[in-house]
Amino acid sequence: MTDDKSIIGRIDDLVAEEKDLRAKHAAGQISDADEHARLKAVEIELDQCWDLLRQRQARRQYGQDPDGAAVRPVSEVEGYQQ
Fold this sequence. Notes:
Blueprint: H1 4-26, H2 32-61, H3 74-79
Helix pairs in contact: 1-2
């Protein structure tokens, strides 16, 4: 992901996948375990995307190059929620 537009596009894709997973689960097309595992992965990637977008916005706000922002490790991004 190299710019805000592509990050937002990825967020949109992940949100659509999340809705699709929930619909498939409700229709009995996927198991609880499959839904849970994929939803967890989607939620983690969403957190990383939102974090990256916020980093880029902050860098821009303070006169820094937004391209200097980088995807942070899952352990770091998920640690914010605790």
